[in-house]
Automatic annotation (TrEMBL):
Every ABC transporter domain range: 3-255
Name of the protein: Nickel ABC transporter ATP-binding protein
Cross-referenced InterPro entries: AAA+_ATPase, ABC_transp_ATP-bind, ABC_transporter-like_ATP-bd, ABC_transporter-like_CS, P-loop_NTPase
Presence of keyword Plastid: no
SUPFAM superfamilies cross-referenced by the UniProt entry: P-loop containing nucleoside triphosphate hydrolases
Keywords, ordered alphabetically: ATP-binding, Nucleotide-binding, Transport
């Protein structure tokens, strides 16, 4: 196993207004409750749940963008929740592509510079081949070579999202967390990007956590599915046989499948 979540809980304070004044924190809301989950090396694990079920919070906790309230996150038998592993080492091994990742593209950097940055940082010895690597990354996410000289503002939302996927691949991480990363792409592009991600995953033995509200999109792509409901993992399954499933919410999700 490459990534293990042990009893991960994340709560947020809830502040209530009291007669014109904001009171001090008087309660807490658990976005993620006691989640235990394992990601195997080379596996694509789908994490499916309705909006607000805690999927993004879980990804943020893995990336240490949010501190855990309790629980542990282990990467390859090393605890990463405690901060002993430096960010730069964590990000070399685990990358997150979020739905709004494109807002993280620097507006004054060309796509070439955006893709060169991780190559320079993590693989300085590849300086001579860096441009070729950028071109092959662009090709792999279905973008034209002339995108290299463009700025993010000159690309569509879907094209920017593909640049974010290429930037994550440039790091050559072991794990990529995709948080609704392809949700904004049109159906044809979505399917070609997923095909590419599958190919890269198999070639490089990558592990993916594929977060989505859309069970259908996980079917051809994921090896196992974890179902999240109101902050908890309520079911993990591999076989698409509804009769084997236990939780009512999973059955509701199955109603959305198109044969
Ligand atoms: N920074 C925050 N402060 C307070 N509450 C938060 C914060 N971030 C998330 N939450 C709450 O935690 C719960 C889970 O949110 P989260 O974004 O993880 O859900 P999600 O399953 O990813 O939803 P979506 O699919 O809509 O992105 C929600 O009730 C949300 O309002």
């Amino acid at each position: 196993m490459i990534l293990e979540l042990k009893q991960v809980t994340k709560t947020y304070p809830v502040r209530r207004r009291k007669k014109g004044w904001f009171s001090k924190q008087d309660s807490e809301q658990a976005a993620v409750k006691q989640v235990s989950l394992e990601l195997q090396r080379g596996e694509c694990l789908g994490l499916v749940g309705e909006s607000g079920s805690g999927k993004s919070t879980l990804a943020q906790c893995i990336m240490r963008l949010e501190p855990l309230t309790s629980g542990e996150v282990w990467l390859d038998r090393q605890p990463i929740h405690s901060g002993k592993v430096k960010d730069v080492h964590l990000y070399k091994r685990v990358q997150l592509v979020a739905q709004d990742s494109s807002s993280s593209l620097h507006p004054r950097m060309t796509i070439r510079d955006i893709l060169l940055e991780p190559i320079r940082n993590y693989f300085p010895e590849r300086k001579a081949q860096a441009l070729d690597i950028c071109l092959s990354l662009l090709e792999s996410v279905g973008l034209e070579a002339d995108s290299l000289e463009k700025y993010p503002s000159q690309l569509s939302g879907g094209q920017k999202q593909r640049v974010c996927i290429a930037r994550a691949l440039a790091v050559e991480p072991e794990i990529i967390l995709f948080d609704e990363s392809v949700a904004n792409l049109d159906a044809a592009t979505q399917s070609s990007v997923l095909d590419l991600l599958k190919k890269v995953q198999i070639e490089r033995q990558l592990s993916y956590l594929f977060i989505t509200h859309d069970l259908q999109s996980t079917r051809p792509f994921c090896d196992r599915i974890a179902v999240m409901y109101q902050g908890e993992i309520v079911e993990v399954f591999k076989d698409w046989d509804e009769s084997l499933l236990q939780h009512e919410y999973t059955h509701t999700l199955f109603q959305t499948l198109v044969e």
